[in-house]
């Protein structure tokens, strides 16, 4: 039975942190035997709000590739490719823009939220506004039946499928296929930053990165936000909205011990320092293999770029086939 195509990716705006790891990277490793996988490093999308600092994107592209390989993404099973190296995506975006209105783009909830988050107003870059269309080009170019996303990205999937239906209807050919969102399992949501804020990010300086040294991880863990009312060891503590316990819920494999620690903390007698030390041990064990692999690949960057080159060539051959079908449907393959 033929495998379905699956597309995932990241914007190279910084190194990947443990929120990325627990939220998507571990899942990608598990899925790489089940689908024809395309993993995109979305450098062009990152340039929509970093156009004046392309060196940042170039540097972080390498960092993201290193993180992919270090967590166990296997280039013999997965096409890891660079968005800007697939020029067919740009032409697909242009064709799709002709069937999408500005008002529809502005109604996209994901775009609305990110515009507000980034404090764009009249300075909104056009490239940022249209990135749902660019994302639709990415998804359809690789005939992706499945796209793993969080709940906040559902509007992007909906808009992609609107574009697919519109295009097929206008040109009366079933050239493009609709895609399905693969949502994460219920339970663990997005990891908060170590300061307890809802978002973990480089700009807020509240993230633990996959590439962090053991000393850096320990320092960050010991500074983590807990229960502000748990002042003395004997005080009863709250494990809900307690960042240390949120991280333990995500990473601790010994669920029996974790349950006992939660009960002890709730009734009092368990100090924050002891809980943080245990979390540090858990994270160090989880990240040691990743860190060692990353160190190896950092010394073999020629291999890393060969992986990206090969993956991009494979991805481009698929995108070229899709674009040919789109051009045929529109009627602009004049000389073929």
UniProtKB/TrEMBL annotation:
GO terms for cellular component: cytosol. Keywords: Aminoacyl-tRNA synthetase, ATP-binding, Ligase, Nucleotide-binding, Protein biosynthesis. One of its GO terms (biological process) is tryptophanyl-tRNA aminoacylation. It comes from the Bacteria. It catalyses: tRNA(Trp) + L-tryptophan + ATP = L-tryptophyl-tRNA(Trp) + AMP + diphosphate + H(+). Its EC number is 6.1.1.2. It holds the Pfam family tRNA-synt_1b. One of its GO terms (molecular function) is ATP binding. The keyword DNA damage does not apply. The keyword Chaperone does not apply. Belongs to the class-I aminoacyl-tRNA synthetase family. PANTHER family: TRYPTOPHAN--TRNA LIGASE, MITOCHONDRIAL. This is Tryptophan--tRNA ligase.
